[in-house]
Design goal:
single chain, mainly beta, Neuraminidase, four-stranded antiparallel beta sheet, 1 helix, 28 strands
């Protein structure tokens, strides 16, 4: 934990950003300032299967349903969020395998591979009206209008789900050029899915500004925003990375033993959270620096 002196200077110039990690023990809330990792604690106690966040909302998937909470970042300084959750799955959402927040609402996949869409309600305590979009094999991840499933990458349309190809997809990003991490390799969507690298990949993330990261058996691959070239690097820690995300100028990764790794472009910092069984990581909002 930080000292009081460290808390006074933490985030003074670069601001503070919330990062949330879903684990078998709960959801860890971590404050970071650029690549400095600050205070952390449990925002939700109990096994969490998925997590998604925006600047003002946190959504947690569990084996029993879906929870949501409002996050107030104003004047929070370096304190970790202490949200109050409400169950919003209603009678529709049971076990959750993946969740994504969009400007319009939520996209949810349950344990049977059924995918639902719900518009944001007026209050976080009010369950949205859920629309069934379709069903697939096991859903692993949802991001920016794309869905990663055991039987391929699906595009989420107004009318439902459209399979775009590939198999055994572990992760996907639809920010910028779509990318997919599969058991057979890393792919980009151009004129169909085109191979970037061979081997099994577990996670992929992009920031919408040309940068991207992917992790797999080959190591950590990083795409340059300048020329689009991919470089293979060594992961920041030895434990396997299970999820990646990028937003607010930060790339965050989490390992299966609950180690959070963060970079803002000047090298990785990492912190063991003491929460094994990590499954996902999400970047929320925060406060701007002076």
């Amino acid at each position: 934990m930080q000292t009081l002196t460290e808390k006074r200077v933490f985030g003074a110039k670069t601001g503070v950003t919330d990062i949330f990690v879903s684990t078998d023990s709960g959801v860890a809330a971590v404050t970071v300032s650029a690549d400095q990792i600050g205070a952390f604690g449990l925002a939700h106690r109990g096994s969490a299967t998925a997590v998604a966040a925006t600047g003002d909302r946190l959504v947690v998937g569990t084996d029993e349903g879906l929870l949501a909470a409002d996050i107030d970042a104003a004047d929070r300084s370096a304190d970790v969020p202490d949200p109050t959750f409400a169950a919003i799955g209603g009678d529709t959402i049971d076990a959750v395998s993946a969740v994504a927040l969009t400007p319009e609402g939520l996209i949810i996949a349950d344990g049977d591979g059924v995918v639902y869409r719900g518009e944001h309600a007026e209050t976080v305590t009010e369950p949205p009206a859920w629309e069934r979009l379709g069903a697939t094999d096991e859903v692993r991840a949802i991001d920016a209008g794309l869905l990663a499933a055991a039987d391929g990458v699906y595009r989420i349309d107004d009318d439902g789900l459209t399979n775009t190809g590939l198999t055994d997809v572990r992760a996907v990003t639809g920010i910028g050029q779509p990318l997919a991490a599969t058991a057979d390799g890393l792919f980009r969507l151009a004129n169909g899915w085109q191979s970037i690298a061979d081997g099994a990949f577990r996670a992929v993330a992009a920031d919408g500004h040309g940068h991207a990261h992917a992790v797999g058996d080959a190591g950590l691959l990083v795409r340059s925003a300048d020329d689009g070239a991919w470089t293979t690097t060594t992961p920041p820690v030895e434990a396997p990375i299970v999820d990646l995300t990028a937003d607010r100028g930060i790339v965050a990764a989490v390992t299966d033993d609950g180690t959070l790794c963060v970079t803002a472009g000047d090298g990785w910092r990492h912190q063991r959270l003491g929460l094994p069984g990590a499954r996902g990581v999400a970047i929320g909002g925060g406060t701007d620096g002076s």
